[in-house]
Amino acid sequence: MSGKRITYSLSRWALATWFAVVLALPSQADYDWGLPDWLDPPPVPADNPVTEEKVALGQRLFFELDLSGPRYMSCATCHEPAMGFSDGRETPVGVTGEFHSRNSMGLLNVAYQGVLTWADPELETLEEQVRVPLFGINPIEMNVAGNEESVLNNLHCDPVYPVMFAAAFPEADGVINYDLVAKALATYVRVMVSATSPYDMYRYGGDETAVSELAKRGEELFMSDRLNCSTCHTGIHFTDASPTPSYHNTGLYNVDGAGGLPEGNQGLFEHSGDAADIGRFRTPSLRNVALTAPYMHDGSLPDLDAVIDHYAAGGEAARLGDASPLVSEHITGFELTDDERTGLIAFLESLTDEQFLADARFQTPFQ
């Protein structure tokens, strides 16, 4: 994106419509997160408070095809609700047909995490992160860079957006610009908080019947020293990246005998330059993990069975016969019976939050 600031002001007809809409709306108040007592809302920037109007605008923008250069790709193209806001591909494809190097992460509860993306320690806020798919050129995703004026014009000429921007950002005096687009999208992603899975009802809600006995045995295995899963997938959000980021090499590759990874996908090393960071990636959350296959930073493991095989062997490279010398000390390997494997998968499936996924706020508004 160039340094110039692109904005559009509310037209006279839209301004009149806006006044009619705003007068009919309740006054803006603290957002009702609807969270259980055991979970606090995620941190919210002081300059971007959460409101119902902003969430509604962010929802529409998230599913809006006109928010891309060629007008046929949205945020939801790579973050589909039915897939836990991932996309089911090994790696996503941008509007130009360019394949990316990283798997699309699920977005649920991402606002609790200290940094965003697989390996960039500089991206710490959702307001910064949502700009990457819009304006990024390596790889190209939504291809807004070079098309800034036409994309904003799409929003300005739409009969709905001028009114929604004015309601969400009354302080902006009818302006539509990319700062406000980023704030609305960030707000929408921020309220994607999953806390009503069967496991939540059982572990935090006290409902012993919410999950099966098989899943309970799977939880015991997951938390055990033998499997060591909960060392990195820890806490309410099942990741040690919340609130402080952690990065690990899980032994997925050893292409050169020295722990090397395929070219162009070196993890934290790409940002730190420290050889100790080769192959280290941020720990993803396991919430709704049964919906977000394929797995790992490059989508190279197709299903949960493959992921269990990977960790049981001490890393995929070890499973294939040549363990990575850079593998984390936490990846120790283990053996499982068939019944234990079934229980472990049942536990992971109990993290699927169907109630969240059925919420109309997290579905497309374009019906």
Give structural notes.
With 367 residues, the protein is mainly alpha-helical. It folds into two domains: 187 residues, Cytochrome Bc1 Complex, Chain D, domain 2 (Orthogonal Bundle); 157 residues, Cytochrome Bc1 Complex, Chain D, domain 2 (Orthogonal Bundle). Helices cover 32% and strands 2% of the residues. It contains 15 helices and four strands. It has a two-stranded antiparallel sheet with strand order 1-2. A two-stranded antiparallel ribbon has the order 3-4. α1 crosses α7 and α2 runs antiparallel to α7. It is globular, with a radius of gyration of 22 Å. It starts with 6 loop residues before the first strand and ends in a 10-residue tail after the last helix.
Described by strand count, sense and barrel closure, the largest sheet is:
2 strands, antiparallel
Query: What is the CATH T-level topology of the largest domain?
Result: Cytochrome Bc1 Complex, Chain D, domain 2
Number of helical stretches of at least 4 residues: 15
Highest CATH level, the class of the largest domain? Mainly Alpha
Derived from helix and strand composition plus strand pairing, the structural class reads mainly alpha
**SSE string:** EHHHHHHHEHHHEHEHHHH
β-strand number: 4
